[in-house]
Amino acid sequence: MSNDEYGVLLYYKFAPIPDLNSLSSFYHSNCNSLGLLGRVRLSPNGVNVTVGGLLSALEKHIEDVKSNSLFEGTDFKLASSHHPLNDKVAAECGFTSLSIRVVKELVTFSSHPLLKPPEVSNAGRHLSAAEFHSVLQSAGQLMKNGSSADDKPLVLLDARNLYETRIGKFHAPSVETLDPGIRQYSDLPSWIDDNSEQLRGKHVLMYCTGGIRCEMASAYIRSKGAGFENVFQLYGGIQRYLEQFPDGGFFRGKNFVFDHRISVGSSDTSIMGACLICGSSYDNYSSRCRCTHCRMLVLICDSCQIKSDDYVCELCQKHHIDIGTIPSVEDSELSSVLDKNDLKTVCSDYIISSQLPSRNVNVPPRKLRILCLHGFRQNASSFKGRSASLAKKLKSIAELVFIDAPHELPFIYQSCTEANNSCVPSSGRHSPPPENCKRKYAWLVAPDFGGEVEADWKIANQPFDPLQYQQQTDGFDVSLAYLKKVFSEQGPFDGILGFSQGAAMAALLGAQRDKLKGEIDFRFVIVCSGFALPFADIGHNPINCPSLHIFGSDPDKDRQITSHTSRYLASRFEEGCSVVIEHECGHIIPTRSPYIDNIKDFLKRFL
C-alpha cells in the first residue's frame, strides 16, 4: 500500500477511561492535525473509532494512540480504499466531517435504557480468524483449550442487522446458522431472550463486522448462567477473516461496512442479496433506498427504482404493515435467487418469500398494548372508569386493555354508616339485590377463601382492615394460568400495568419474566400503589425487568398501601432498571403534569 493512498481505520477498546476530557482533547487535536474524518465515540468504558484519511496519516494516528498505555493490545484494522466522494453515502456515513462525541455506551446494546448493559469482562473467548475457520472446517468439533474436543453441538450466531446479513454471511455445511433478522443491534437482547433455548448447552460461535458488537452480546449470553458458558467470538470480525482468507473461506457474499465503502467482498464475486421488488440478484446499497415505514435500508435494483420510491421492508411486512396492492413474484424467480435448502439458516424475521414491494403506504404509528390488572375487590369495568383520564392522555401512544381477575368474590357490606360504596347499604337497611351490582374479583385471595360465591349479600365478619392484603397470598397459580390464556387469546401485549393487588401481581410476573417466555411475553411493567408478595421470586435476587413505580409519598394519604411498602417493592428491582414516580395524592394513578409527562417519557422508550 502506498502512503499516498486513501484508507479507512477501525478500532475499539473496552477499558476504564480515567479522564474523558483529556482523551477527547487528544482526538480533536490529533485527528484535525492529520486531516482525518469520521466518527470517534468516547465513553467511561472505552472508545470506538472509524476514521478515514491518507494511509500515512492513519499510520501516524495509530502510532500516537499506541503511545497511550490505555490502548495496549488494541486491534487496529487498517484498509486501503477509494477516496470518499462528496455524495450522500459519504455524508450519511459521517465521512465528510469529524465527529467526536462522549456517549453513555459505545454501542447501544438495548433499546430499553433502563436495563443494565452486560459486563464486557464476561465476554466470550476470542478466536482468531484461523481458529474460527478451523472450528467450522471440523464441522463443530470445538477444541477445548486447544487440545481436546467434546461433543457439544455447535451453532453460528450472526450479531448483525438484517440489512447486513442480506448481502453476506457465514455458511458451513454442517453447522446451523442463526440469523436473528433484527432491524437494529439494540433488538438483539430481546431476540436472545426469546431464543435462548436454541443456544443453551451449545458451543456458540458469534461474529459481526469488526468485533465490538460480539463483545457485548457474548457477555449477555454468558450472563444467563448454566448452559450458556461456551460462547466464542471471531476476533477482529469479518474484516480480519476476509484478510486471512481472501477467497472468502466460509463467508459468502459481501461484508457490509459503516463507511463510504458500503461493503467489502472477497475474490468470490457471487451475489447473495436480492432486490426487494423483483427478486433479482442484487447487493448494492449505494442508492440508499429505505423502507418508507421504519427507514431501514432495503435492496432495490436500478430497474425497480425507476418504477417506485415507496418500499416496505421484510420486517414491516411480517408485522402486518398495510402495504397495499402487491404484484406477485413467481416461486421460480425466488428459488433462483437463493437455495434455501442449501443454506441451513434459521432466521426469525427474514423470509425470502416476503420480499415484495409496497405501494401507497399510509400507516399510522403503532401503539403500545398494555394489559391492565385491577385491584382487590374491583373489576375491569370499574378500573377502566377510574383510569379513563389516564387512557385519554395516553391514547396517542398506548392502548389499555382491561380484564377481570379470575377469583370472584362474595357481596359483603359493613353494618355501619361509614360504608361509602354506592352498592353497600347503610346500617339498619336491607342490602340491594345483587343483580344491581357488578361482580367483584381478585388476583389473590386469603387461604380460607372457599371459592363458592353466594347469590346474596352478607355482612362482613369484621371491620375493614387496611392490612388485609397481607393475608391474601393464595390463588396465584389460578391467576397465572388465566393470564397465560389471556395472552394467548388477546395478545400480544407490550407491557402490564397493575394497580394495588394488580400491581403486586404485575411485579411478580416481572420477577418471573424469563420463566414465562413463550407463554406470557412482555417488555415492561407499570406498578401503581404496589406491594411485595411473600414469594421467593420477589425476596431473593434483584428483578431485571424494566419497570415504572407510581405511588403516594405521604404515608397518611393512602389508607390501602403505605408509601414505604411501595418503595420497598421498587427497591427489589435491579438498580438502573426501574423508574419511580412519587406523588402527593392517595390511592390513585395521577394524570396531571408533571406525572403524566413522566409516564409518557417511560412509555416512549418502548415505541
From TrEMBL:
Gene3D superfamilies, per database record: 3.30.70.100, alpha/beta hydrolase, Rhodanese-like domain
SUPFAM superfamilies attached to this UniProt entry: alpha/beta-Hydrolases, Rhodanese/Cell cycle control phosphatase
Report the residue ranges that make up the Rhodanese domain in this protein.
150-250
What PROSITE patterns does this protein's entry cite? RHODANESE_3 (PS50206)
Q: What superkingdom does the record give? A: Eukaryota
Pfam families, sorted:
FSH1, Rhodanese, Rhodanese_C, UPF0176_N
TM region(s), chain numbering:
none
- Name of the protein: Rhodanese domain-containing protein
Q: Which organism is it from?
A: Hibiscus trionum
